[in-house]
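Quick illustration, no need to memorize.
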Amino acid sequence: MEYEVVTLPERKITGVGVRTANDAPDCGPKISALWQHIRAHQSDTKTYYGLYTDYQQDGSYLAVVGTEGAVCTPDEVCVTIPAGTYARFHFKGNVHSGIYAAWQEIWNMELPRVYTVDFEEYLCCDAAGQGEAYIYVALGHICQSCGMPMTLPEQYGTEQDGVPSQDYCCYCRKEGAFVQDCTMEEMVEFCLQYGPSARMDPDMARKQMLPYFATLKRWRK
């Protein structure tokens, strides 16, 4: 799936939630019940949100369906979508079956996910389930050359004055210069030795990585 990397401001979503997991037998019915509740009580709202947050090691997460707003009653759940960088996927089709299929593709993609809040933003949907939506996946601070997530101080490269680079990792940037003098395609081939190809077909990994790398600062046209 194609996507673009976007920076979003903070926003608050208020609605109803339930804890579940993708492999739970009642996952689908639980989330469907959330949607039925919201649509019954806020039918005049144009934009709905489906959120996934509070991820746990056992695979469970908090699923929330709601609308934008900071006022939260005792019976509701209020979730803050943090400001930050997200991979944004555009969806158009049947939301009942298509969104789940889209997520299945996303789960198999090599993304530097931080598992804070991932969410769906539904722009419109008719009675037959045909609609348009965006899927947002929270991304970490990633190297804008090789795509590596940078979570530790020692993983950051350095600029000419010795300060940590905010855009590039220690493998790509030293003292204000790029370590590798290469094209984007050559960088992808280099990264294939250490990343996705270890877990999937190299050709498939390459097909996914090329459009992703094209969104990074060093390679962006």
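Residues 38 and 123 are 15 Å apart (CA to CA).
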